[in-house]
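Hi W.,

Here's what went into the run:
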Amino acid sequence: MATGTTPTTPAARGVLAPGRAAISARHLRTDRWWLSPLVTAVALTIFIIYATWRAFANGDYYSTPYVSPLYSPCLASNCTPMNGGADWHLFGSWWGLSPALLVLVFPLGFRLTCYYYRKAYYRGFWASPPACAVAEPHAKYTGETRLPLIMQNVHRYFFYLALPVAGILTYDVVLAFRDESGAWGHAGLGTLVLLLNIALIWAYTLSCHSCRHIIGGKLRHFSAHPVRYRLWGWVGALNGRHMLLAWSSLISVGVADLYVYLVASGVFDDPRFF
Amino acid sequence: MTQVERHAYDVVVVGAGGAGLRAAIEARERGMRTAVICKSLFGKAHTVMAEGGIAASMGNVNSHDSWQVHFRDTMRGGKFLNQWRMAELHAKEAPDRVWELETWGALFDRTEDGRISQRNFGGHEYPRLAHVGDRTGLELIRTLQQKIVSLQQEDFAETGDYEAKLKVFQECTVTRVLKDDERSETGAPPDRRSGGKVAGVFGYVRESGRLFVIDAPAVVLATGGIGKSFKVTSNSWEYTGDGHALALLAGAPLINMEFIQFHPTGMVWPPSVKGILVTESVRGDGGVLRNSDGERFMFGYVPDVFKEKYAQSEEEADGWYTDPDNHRRPPELLPRDEVARAINSEVKAGRGTPHGGVFLDVSTRLPAEEIRRRLPSMHHQFKELADVDITAEAMEVGPTCHYMMGGVDVEPDTAAARGVPGLFAAGEVAGGMHGSNRLGGNSLSDLLVFGRRAGLSAAEYASGLGGTRPAAPEEQIDAAAAEALRPFAAGDSADEGPAENPYTLHQELQQVMNDLVGIIRRGPEMEQALERLAVLRERAQRVGVEGHRQFNPGWHLAVDLRNMLLVSECVARAALERTESRGGHTRDDHPGMDRGWRKVNLVCELTDQAQGADARKEALIGLRQRPTDPIRADLLALFDREELLKYLTDEELDR
Amino acid sequence: MTHTAHFKVWRGDTDGGDLRDYEVEVNDGEVVLDIIHRLQATQAADLAVRWNCKAGKCGSCSAEVNGRPRLMCMTRMSVFEPDETVTVTPLRAFPVIRDLVTDVSFNYDKARQVPAFVPPKGVPAGEYRMQQVDVERSQEFRKCIECFLCQDTCHVVRDHEENKAAFAGPRFLMRIAELDMHPLDAAADQGLVRAASAQEDHGLGYCNITKCCTEVCPEHIQITDNALIPLKERAIDRKYDPLVWLGSRIRRRKE
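Here's what came out:
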């Protein structure tokens, strides 16, 4: 690795700034530090492309009794009728675009402001920093001190909104235990997929840092609130796996949607257990 | 005349561990402009290594505890050689010093009812150690550091300068205590008998190598111990006996220098961490010692004086952890000197572990989760350094040089060094408090109790002087500068012989002390040690370093060598003189404890030859015997006569 | 087991320097600091390095090993391949003094700017009562050994010298969190809202929670999840949550 004896050039900043040890390399890491941000960026990009396509597609999102999590609740008149499902036509008929766009803003906002995803895309897309002790390429950095990034502080409101959304998806899963005719007692592979998805969504939602704060973290004296302390402990245990849950719930949403799409578009029939 | 940076303060504290910081806080709160000088960065002092806790008879866990019981335990632990007044003050004031830390933000582990939790420890009759997991020393140092910062914030609010009244000079080494000298006009060298008063300190900034003088009428030594003279030690590089040597060179006597505590449980493997401490809390919380035969060997090593207090069987010992009122304590919790000797014997008898220690096992005694909660830093230390999971396997441990009981001979109430007005000492550098052996947990409380007293007395002394302050003569400063810079000139003149490498000398010194004046001592070996020390001392005159003065570790070590050599000579001379075994001094050739020797302190002083310019071959240290102070009657009355007879002579008791 | 390792150690000072090559003996069970000491004793007597306890308890021997901020005393040689070059440099976020020693005064300046613990009025020493569950969160942060590796790795100041004035760094934001969670801290009685002040006066907003501080912490303190994010949430309580804001308004009215 090249190193120089002249400490600085006028444009030198960060680790190359005057006064710091004169090492010309911007970093000296020898491990594959670039792997993790690369994987993050690629995986997020794939999801974004897929989700954008599906959100605008406006079709093949319902196949009785399954609804894609991207399209629930369905709030416009152009929704496919769902048998007892959450197709509430609150927006009336003037909405001509895909109804998914009306609701996706909530989970999108929740995930965009999530403390884990922030880390992931700041590192993966923005290289701020690309990895620990690897110099970032930007000349200036103000972090979340001003607009627009100061808006990240609204995360807790998206958390509040994520709760009813998760509730509705839960309702969808309950309906997935009915067959095409509306009779209870059905269970197919689709039911299982949606069930797994909602479990992961709840786990991700409840493992949120804002949730951890609201449920008990804000307290100064746990001893005076034993119930909230216990809840805080549980949320804390989930929170320790926030990254894992963020990824697995993201993948499960994509898989659940894909599954419904494949069934609805007739690629294959939903295997039925009973 | 040497060009030096010059500062003036009311009180200078040398050392920024627990005792030094506590002294500085006290002096500043008494209105003194105070300087703290430390060799490391602020907050890195060796105090952070203390693990177990602070002994204070708060009685939070067992309400039977009181200062009297604590005093009794301390005296027993020190085999009655303790300066009894210090032990008394210590036992009485420790609880206040601990509670005070809470008002500065310390967060100790708690009892059910929200008070400070206290844990069991070797030699303490009741659970007595306030603790934070096993990182109590860190909590202590951080709390004191943050208290200092808070005082600086007050000064900033008042004056706009954080350092207006209290300044920390970090990464500086003090090489001389300066004194005024009535005879300086005659040109005679500074002499310890001239009765000069302290006038300040001389030192250098490690970072830049700049020399400095701080003029100050009161100097508090709080430099800690001497462990770096030994090869296997739990002590950090800072522990080079600086304060001990500074006191000697300023004309103050040292006492009890033969007593060095070898902690029974240091790591023995890998070699690079050999000596690093394994906290006594491992045993306090249930850990047991076994030899390679799997035997819990400590039952065979309970000495007669402790027979009634310790369990005879494993069942009884195990019962104690949950029901201490109806069981006697396990012998693993004997005072440290006993346990260290027992381990030493087991290894010598061929029942040691592959790496020459014994097994300390907590994995079969507590659930893994509990171990991680109670002993987090031990778990971490073994995992990271030795790749050993202490929740699943036993540790290998052996004795390591841990603590110097001896030190500056001080007045118990004021911490003032005898014979040198204006010099004070507190903490490990002060002698007497722990007698021949210190109990675990008594060190941190010692730091706080006597750190505060030293700061207080130094403040009173400095303000009592009024406007007339002692001044150090210029030639003393010149001499100090020449001494500090000599390693750069070594090897320049042909008649002196080749320059010596400080690292080599240091390693040889450590080997000599470890092998010849170590845990088990023999007369002829110590005589040999003294001869080899004399040779090392002569070679040290020629110690030379490369490079320049800016942050040069070779130079720093060369300067510290003088102190280690002086202190090592004290240890060897005193150990040779004391022909008995007691506490941290074990003579193979005199295995018994002798009641006659309890009445005697050995006092080390610099000889007159040592003051002269050419003192290479002569002994630098003179030794004299001094009778100990008789223990006050009401304190003696705290013990049974039968017990006292084991320690005190009949005449002492009948008086 | 002994082998010879290839080391590159940065030697120099404020005027410049370079990575020097050393061939040095390595024994079983050794850590990087042992090797640096061996270099001092045998090949480079004046190699400047800070160290102290050599047991991971004091946080003195911070440096960057193969580009990663680490404690030299806790970096075992066995994590490297025998033929791997081990590069040791000083911390690169702070001004260098000499060789592996840097000027860490930034951290001591920041420490002074965090208002100290405020003892509760009317509670004498010895009468403090706190429950274990209430002290545990702050106790985690008090495990900090002030090695300043988190301060070194944080890109906010590592890559942007100009942010040093406004940003306290993970260690001292964590200190604010510690005091804010202290069961008896009475700063609020003096009108100091620590969480809001963390954002307004100590640069909490600069933190973009990319977690490098947590990654390098040798004490394994969950700095981001347990200190910085909760502190951000507490600041939001004070500054951006209308419900909380309204609640505190009403409570104040009642008093």
